[in-house]
Amino acid sequence: MDNLSTQKEEQVLQGVAASPGIAMGPVVFFGSELVTVEQRTLADSEINREVETFCKAIEKAKTDLQKLVEKTALSIGRESAKIFEVHQLLLEDVLIVDETVKRIREEKKNADQAFLEVMENFEVSLESIEGEYLKARAADIRDVKRRVIRNIQGNAHPRQKKLKEPAIIFAKELTPSDTVNIERNKVLGFAMDFGGRTSHAAIMARSIKVPSVVGLKKIGQLLHTGDFVILDGNSGVLIINPTLKTIDEYKRKFSDYRNIQNKLKHLKGLPARTRDGKDIELSANIEFPDEVKAVKESGADGVGLFRTEYLYLTKSELPTEEEQFNEYKSIVKSLNDQPIIIRTFDLGGDKAPKAISLPPEANPFLGARGIRLYRDEGINLFKTQLRAIVRASAYGKVRIMFPMISCVSEIRYCQQVLNDVKDEFRKQGIPFAEDIPVGAMIEVPSAAVIADIISQECDFLSIGTNDLIQYALAVDRGNEHIAYLYQPYNPSVLRLVKDVIQKGHKNGVWVGICGEMASDPLITMLLIGMGLDEFSVSPVSLLLIKEIIRRVECAECINIVEEVISFGTPDEIVKYLRKVMKNRFQDLYLLF
Amino acid sequence: MIEKSFTITNKLGIHARPAGLLVKTSSRYKSSAFISNEGHEVNAKSIMGVLMLGAAFGSTIHLRLDGEDEQEAMKALEDLIVNRHFDEE
């Protein structure tokens, strides 16, 4: 009775959004077949045969995994296949194999029991290690464990899961082989008790584009095979036995989401121009050279921030001028005349290069970082990088930006060194672009306040909102105890951004944003209203931001700025922006 | 016998795939290979051992190689950890 009444009630459960999209349909339980093992004590005469059984089971598992590697590489991709290569290594591991054989021989345990014990010990120790990413590896151990035990017990093949009709798969935890073995064309979505965004099941779900919600804790107890559910991979919600009203609501959301995705695709080749004709430069941020491909695929106007720290952080020697030149040149050339802002190294703070010994500091973020390392002995390092960048300017549209500028003399100093470099090249006849635009990164409040004076010394400003927020609000962005104070929508932050844009314009320089803020669709209109000229966003958000830009007019954006500036708290601002954006973009309401 | 210390620079630390690469590389050589993190030492040819190290971003690991091809092995491992940083971020 009790069961019946609860079964009909709608239940909304919050989990972790692991792969975007919306699905609805019946649930099918996917029990990763539990292995049952009975312990026996072997007779002496049985021992050799048992060891042989174990070795054969391992060999068979290796062969099967090889097939799975190939199948996965073909059907999902090489990256996803790599996890099964790790499984193969587990099967060759001396610790695992020797320990199991030892237990069979010395403790006279049956092979499946011995192997189970060994693997469970590892599973427990692995789960105790800090860090979600490694904890998730316990799932790999379990996967290998089941595979081998099935072989020992002679249950050759795992049942290929046949789904009669399309369904949402529920499992306590899907192992990587489960994810691959399920018939993909009938899977509407995945729901899981365990796992986070970095579990393999989540990674695979994203690469095969199946909506997923993980970390639902113990929903297994509330669900029954055949229950109708709605799964929202955008917000991480699972709704069991939804009411007709909820179903209707989600049917709309479902088709809307599809429409949004489809519509955005057409924007790739179109300019980021407002309805009243203002062109906005919409570029992408990159951290590693291989991301250039994603930038080009996303339809960006160029690269708005190329961070160069990786050159200093990954090697024990400093990068030479030649190495850097080749790196920059190949990126600049591959962009086919699209502009790229190369930011000179921003080391110090949380980024300590190996080749330079920086003295320990009590407050590294307020210490020797960014431009502050370019003086004294640091000048050679700075000059080497500038020489490489200036040489690369001969191959495309290079712009240079300096990090952590906090006063006028710093930007003057950088310009001076840059001019020295250019003079040397002129004398030596080395080619470079004469008119390389130079920008100051505005991330320190003192620079924001005098942005009008700083912009007299350069060609553009780019607001680094991530650090500007932390410095303006005196909130360490890595400190979880005060994370609630790290507020991009804080009125002080928004006013600073507005002021910087105005002050830049007063001196005729263009102003961009290269922090997370530029990728946030909720404030795109606000930023357009403030007059922002360039948005440098992460490639995945690019088309969405472009869509918003293309559908608005500057005048209505300016009205939003006036409203927002009158509010005193971040909450009021968010509430207002949500309302405005939901209203203004009713077809995109899912995203606000 | 030769020894050397390295800092782990890929963001996710030595998780499954880097551990796999490390084990594959050290297994190519005859020399014995041991790796330690915060005093905990394991066989660098065992994936389970290397995973158990739990070496996260920024941790310092210590390699100890012993055998006829220890120099070549160290070179290959150094290349993997320092230059290629496990072929990831």
Written description of the protein model:
The complex is a heterodimer of chains A (592) and B (89). Helix content of chain A is 46%, strand content 13%. With 592 residues, chain A is of the alpha/beta class. Chain A has 3 domains: 2-32 and 160-263, Glucose Oxidase, domain 1 (3-Layer(bba) Sandwich); 44-153, PtsI, HPr-binding domain (Enzyme I, Chain A, domain 2, Orthogonal Bundle), CATH 1.10.274; 279-591, Phosphoenolpyruvate-binding domains (TIM Barrel). Chain A has an 8-stranded mixed beta sheet. In chain A, strands 9-10-11-12-13-14-15-16 form an 8-stranded parallel beta barrel, surrounded by 4 helices. In chain A, helix 9 links the parallel strand 5 and strand 6 (212-214). In chain A, helix 2 packs across helix 7 (138-153). Chain A starts with a helix and ends in an 8-residue tail after the last helix. Chain B has 89 residues and is an alpha+beta fold. Chain B has a single domain (2-87), classed as Histidine-containing Protein, Chain: A, CATH 3.30.1340. Chain B contains 3 helices and 4 strands; from the N terminus they run βαββαβα. Chain B has helices at residues 16-27, 47-53, 70-83, and strands at 2-7, 32-37, 40-43, 60-66. In chain B, strands 1-4-2-3 form a 4-stranded antiparallel beta sheet, with helices on one face. In chain B, helix 1 packs antiparallel against helix 3. Chain B is globular. The model of chain B has no long low-confidence stretch (mean pLDDT 88). The A-B interface holds A 82-83, 85-86, 89-90, 92-96, 122, 125-126, 129-131, 133-134, 137, 140, 198, 287-288, 313-316, 354 and B 7, 9, 12-13, 15-17, 19-20, 23-24, 43, 45-49, 51-52, 54, 56, 82-83, 85, 89.
